Amino acid sequence: MTEDQHLETDFARNANGTVIEVENLHKDYGDIAAVDGITFSVNPGETYGLLGPNGAGKTTTMRLLSGLSPATSGSIAVAGIDVIKDNRAVRELMGVVTQHDGLDGGLTVFQNLFLYGFLAGLSRARAKERAHEVLEFFSLRDRSKANVYELSGGMKRRLAIARSMMTSPKVIVMDEPTTGLDPQSRNRVWEEMAVLKDSGVTILLSTHYMEEATILCDRLSIMDHGKILDEGTPDQMIERHAPKEVAQLRVVPAALRSVREYLTGRNISYREVGALVSVTGANGDRPDLSGLEGVEGVRTSYRAGNLEDVFLAITGRELRDG
Ligand SMILES: Nc1ncnc2c1ncn2[C@@H]1O[C@H](COP(=O)(O)OP(=O)(O)OP(=O)(O)O)[C@@H](O)[C@H]1O
Ligand SMILES: [Mg+2]
Hints:
Elements: H1 3-6, E1 20-29, E2 32-42, E3 47-51, H2 58-65, E4 73-78, E5 81-82, H3 87-93, E6 94-97, H4 109-119, H5 124-137, H6 153-164, E7 171-175, H7 183-198, E8 202-207, H8 210-216, E9 219-224, E10 227-232, H9 234-241, E11 245-251, H10 253-265, E12 270-273, E13 276-279, E14 298-304, H11 307-315
Parallel strand pairs: 3-8, 3-9, 6-7, 7-8
Antiparallel strand pairs: 1-2, 1-4, 4-5, 9-10, 11-13, 11-14, 12-13
Helix pairs in contact: 4-5, 4-6, 9-11
């Protein structure tokens, strides 16, 4: 598809120039504060990430933003629309990729796209034309007549993203677009998202994957228990919260006990995931592991601090455990 036709970048902004503006947003489900007073904004063309473990409130935030669920209190403005007052208007403007695809398994790939566009208000002719365009863009043309249940997980996910593009939205929310995909399909989705991003679409993305956030997000926030714990660019977050260097020890089971004793004896903090022991020195500097040199069954390597470390430092939990 050509850029001028379908991915125009000049779109309505909020009064202060942002595309998404969320202020002191709350959503309670009975006693549960699913979203507990969050404030953030997203600039035109930015990809903004929400990172958080299960139950952090990411999906709830996205549902509130896309007008699918009413807020308990607070304000949301998307492209100049007050979402609390006019949730219909935002639904027309925004593309949404939900956590579970919500594709119609009884219909073909083409029919899924066509029907979505038609129900969203495109004319029959335009919905048909647009379906062909997005099939082309997402390289799904040769699967156009396949039933959704015949598609692989990766293709379904790409179809769900393709479907959200039927109305040429300028703002798109994607709830865990690559969860459960194999690395190859995930790469494919990342490539397609990068093209959308390049074309100026503003993206709000939730993810459990550090690599995804690092590659795609201009800025991100870390959420837990309905609150935003910190916000910044990936580099800022790493600078603020991650150690400069982390030593990684691959340890055979027989050597594990002596490694633990060595580290504990020197008050060096570490964490274990399977046979991998991650060690951070004081002040985030390189830890002194000279005493482990030459110990049989221990292989040491060093890596730079990353978003995984940021997440752990802020929430006390591993990101991949979600
Ligand atoms: N419809 C609902 N009714 C009652 N409680 C809900 C509802 N939807 C979400 N919750 C609760 O709100 C909290 C936040 O859930 P939410 O789905 O937003 O988390 P999440 O960050 O998307 O998690 P995940 O990573 O597992 O998708 C959880 O405690 C959840 O149980
Ligand atoms: Mg969710």
